[in-house]
Amino acid sequence: INGRKIQLITEDDQYLVKNTVSAYQKLTQVNKAKIVLVATYCGFLALQDRAAMDGVIMINPLDCNKAIADASRNSFCLATETESIGYVLADQMIKNKQMTAGIMYSTKDSFMNLVTTEFKARFEAAGGKTFVESFNYEDKDFKAQLSKLSTNKIDGLVLLGHDETGVIMKQARDLKINVPFYTTGTITSPGAQQASAGTSEGTVFAYWDASANNAASEAFVKKFTDSVGRPPILPLTTHPAHDTLSVIADVLANTSSEMKIADIKEGLLNTKNYSGITGTVTFDAMGGAPIVEMPYKLVKGAPVKL
Question: Is the pLDDT reported for residue 202 higher than 90?
Answer without folding.
Answer: yes
